[in-house]
Amino acid sequence: MLPIDVLSSIAIEEAIAIHKEFGPGLYESVYESVLARRLRGRGLNVERQVQVKAVFDGVTYDPAFKIDLLVDERLILEIKAVEQLSKAHAKQLLTYLRLLKQPVGLLLNFSEATLKDGIRRVVNDYKPD
Fold first, then answer.
1. What does the mean pLDDT of the chain come to?
2. Is residue 128 part of a domain?
3. The domain containing residue 44 runs over which residues?
4. Engineering a disulfide at 111: which of 24, 31, 44, 127 sits with its beta carbon 3.0 to 4.6 angstroms away?
């Protein structure tokens, strides 16, 4: 199993390559689909639109939310194609990390002129390997 930082690096590398090819302007679903295929091509397990339930006061909400991409059952990737990432996007991803007890997630906004400006790393009780 690859360390989470290695998984993150691979995801960022592939996302940048996709952005260089397509640029901004496509639907989130296109970037998600291409990124999933590229990551699978690198030998990673990738699930798309993973439905996650939540339990509150003994009531199960299924699905409570969907994760765009889940890489090797550990790294959450939230794909955006918006003018600008907001604090709400980061809070959303942090909530996903907390509910799934995962350490790291990436927000990837493909609408930026350069993808480097659209990457946000969100952590939850992260301890480097």
1. 92
2. no
3. 4-123
4. 24
pLDDT per residue over 20-57, tens digit each? 999 998 999 999 999 999 999 999 999 999 988 888 89
Domain contains 129: no
Instruction: Give the angle 39-90-20 at the CA atoms, nearest 5°.
Output: 40
Which residue from 62, 66, 61 is spatially nearest to 93, judged by alpha carbons?
66
Domain count, the chain: 1
**Whose CA is closest to 76, among 99, 110, 53, 56?**
99
24 in a structural domain: yes
Q: Cβ distance 92 to 79 under 8 Å? A: no
Instruction: State the DSSP string of the chain.
Output: ---HHHHHHHHHHHHHHHHHHH-S-S-HHHHHHHHHHHHHHTT--EEEEEEEEEEETTEEEEEEEEEEEEETTTEEEEEE-SSS--HHHHHHHHHHHHHHT-SEEEEEETTSSSGGGGEEEEESS----
